[in-house]
Amino acid sequence: MNIFQQKWMTNALFVILAAGAVAPLFAADTRLPQWIEVVLGGLMSGVLYSLVALGLVLIFKASGVFNFAQGAMVLFAALSLVRLMEKMPFAVALAVTVVIMIGVAWLIERLVLRPLVNQEGIVLFMATLGIAYFLDGLGQTIWGSDVYTLDVGMPKEPKILLENVFEGGILVGMEDVIAAVIAAVLVGLLALFFQKTPTGRALRAVADDHQAAQSIGIPLNRIWVIVWSVSGIVALVAGIIWGSKLGVQFSLQLVALKALPVVILGGFTSVPGAIVGGLIIGLGEKLSEVYLGPYLGGGIENWFAYVLALVFLLFRPEGLFGEKHIDRV
Amino acid sequence: MIYREAGQYKTTYQADQQLFPILQDKIFVLMLLGFAFFAVPLLASEYLFRAILIPFLILTLAAIGLNILVGFCGQVSLGTGGFMAVGAYAAYNLAIRLPDLNLIVVFILAGLAATVVGVLFGLPSLRIKGFYLAVATLAAQFFLDWAFARIGWFTNYAPSGSVSAPALTIFGYTFESPVQKYLLVLSIVCVFTLVARNLTRGAIGRSWMAMRDMDVAAEVIGIRPLYAKVTAFAVSSFFVGLAGALWAFVYLGAWEPLAFDVNRSFQLLFMVIIGGLGALLGSFLGAAFIVILPLMLNQLPGWLGISMSTALISHIEFMTFGALIVFFLIVEPHGLARLWAIGKEKLRLWPFPH
Hints:
The complex is a heterodimer. Chain A has a domain at 41-248. Chain A has helices at 7-22, 32-63, 70-84, 90-113, 121-143, 174-196, 198-208, 210-215, 220-246, 255-266, 271-296, 301-315, and strands spanning 158-161, 170-173. A two-stranded antiparallel sheet of chain A has the order 1-2. By secondary structure, chain A is mainly alpha-helical. In chain A, α3 (70-84) runs antiparallel to α4 and α4 (90-113) crosses α9. Chain B is an all-alpha fold. Chain B has a domain at 44-261. Chain B has helices spanning 13-16, 23-43, 46-72, 80-97, 103-122, 130-150, 178-201, 203-213, 215-220, 225-252, 262-275, 280-304, 310-331, 336-349; strands at 163-164, 169-170, 173-174, 254-255. In chain B, β2 (169-170) and β3 form a beta hairpin. In chain B, α4 packs across α10 (225-252) and α8 packs across α10 (225-252). Chain B is globular, with a radius of gyration of 21 Å. Chain B starts with 12 loop residues before the first helix and ends in a 5-residue tail after the last helix. The interface between A and B is large, with 54 and 50 residues.
C-alpha cells in the first residue's frame, strides 16, 4: 500500500484527472464552446454542492458531529420560507425563517446534543439521522407536502456570451451565475466571521480542542448553538437557491447526499476543502455525465461523484485539506 | 432467586467454554426455540407471519451481518442495501439460469457473490477510517443501485426492471403458505445465528474486536489488519447477501432495485444501533423494534379514535420515528441489548441485593 503514500502518485492522479477533463476536446465530434458550457455548468453546480457541504463542515469542525440532518435543514428552511412568503413580503419572511432556524438550532443543542455529550461519533451520527427524520416529518406536517415554487426574482432566461468569438456563443444560465455569486459572498462572509470576530475565534478554538477551549472560559454550549444556527442559515441560503431552481419539495433533502462526497473529498475539517471539493465534484459529475455517460448507459451522475471521492481518498485518506490524523497507542 | 448460577461448577475447560455456561440460560433458549418452532405456527395468524415475523427474521439476519462489521469490527458501513441487492440478484440469476440447482445452494452462492463484492468494497477500509469510510461505502450503495437498474443482464432484460422469483422448491418440497415460509426462514436464521455466535466468540471474533477497540494497538500485538478487516467484510457481506436473497425470494417474491436502496441501509444501521452494537441479541431486538414500530404508529390514530389523512399519518410517523431514535440514544446509547444485560444482572441479585 506504500505506493499510495508517495507524493508523486498524488500529483500524477491530478494530472490524469485534468487530462481526463480536457480529453473530450480531442474527440472528433466535440466542439470547444460546448465543452466550455459543460465546464461552466459543472462549476456552477459545484458551488451549490459546496454550500450544503459548508454547513456540514462547520458543524463537524466545532462539535465533531457528522450532521446528516443538513439536507433536512435545507428542506425545512426552504419550506418555511416559501409558506411564509404567501403571507408576508420576502424580507420579513426571510427574517422570520432565520429566527426559526436559530430556534431549531437552540432546540437541537438543548434536547439532543447536551444529553449526548461525550458519546461516540457513531451515536451522534445516528442522533442526527433521527433529527433528519424528525425535521422532515415536522416540516411537512406544519407546512404541507406539495411542491411549491419559490420565486425570489432570479432571472430564468439563459444568456449567450462571447457570441463574436465562437459560432453560436456560449449558453450560460443567469440563475446559476447569481447563485454562484451569492455562494461566493457567503463563503467570504463566513471566512471574515471565522477569522476576525471574537466569536469566530472562539469557534476555531473549540474546533481545535474542546477541553482546552472550555478551560479558558469559552462556553461550549453557546458555541454549539451558534454553529448550528450558522449552518441553519447556510442551509436556508442553499434552500433558497436549490428551491428556486428545482421547486421546494421533498427531494430537496437529497442534496445532502450530493454533499457527502464533496465533504470527504475536501476533508471533513476544512472550509476551503468544502469549496474546492464542491468544484471538483461538480465538474467531474457534469463532464462524466456528458462525455462518459453515453458509453455506460446514462444515469451515472448518482455514483460517479462517490467513486471519484473514493479514488481521491485512496491517495489522501484525510481528503484534500483535512487534518492529518496521527494514531498513537 | 430463580436466576442464580450458584452451585453450577465447571470442572472441565469444555464446560467452561460452552455456548451457555449458565443452566437457566440454556433452558430459556431451548424453550424459546421450542416456542418459535412449535407454538408460533399454531398460534399466529397469517397477517402476523406476512407482516411481522418473516420480515423480522430476515432483517435480523441482515442486521447480524451488519453488526459483525459495525459492532464487532468497528467499520461503519452505509452500503448494506447494496450488498443485499447483490445477494438478491445473484440468487435470481442463478435460479433462472441454472433451474436444476438446489435453492439452498443458490442461497449460499448468492451469499458468496455478496462476499466477493463486499471484500472488493471493503479493501479501501485499510486506508480510510471512520466517517470517511462510511461515506465511501455509500459509493458501493449508489454504484450497485445503478448497476442493477441499468445493466440489463442482471434483470434478464426485464423491460420494467422488475423481476420475480421462481417458486420456493427445495428437495421437491414447495414452500407456499406463510407458515412454511416462516419455518424455512426461522431454520436458516437459527443456523446462521449459531455460526455468527461461534465466529464472534472465537479467535477471529476477538481479532475483530481488537481492531474495533484500537487498530494500531491491535496491529502492535500481532493482529494483521488486512486479514481482520477483510474477513469482517467478507463474513458480514455473506450474511447480508444471504438475507438479501431471502428478502427477495421469500418476502417480496417480485421486486425492483428500489427495494434495496439507501433507506434500507439506514434502516439496518438503525436496527444495529438501537439493538446494541457488538451484541448478537441486539440484532434481534433492534430488528423487532424497527419492524414493529412503524406498524404500531400506523395503527395508533385508529385505536385512539382520531381520524387523520394518510399523508399526515406518514409525516407524523416520520416525526415519531426520529424522536424515538433520539430518545433511545439518549436513554441508552448502548442499545436494547444493554438493557437486557442490566436486567440479567439485577435478576441475579434479586431478591437479596447483598
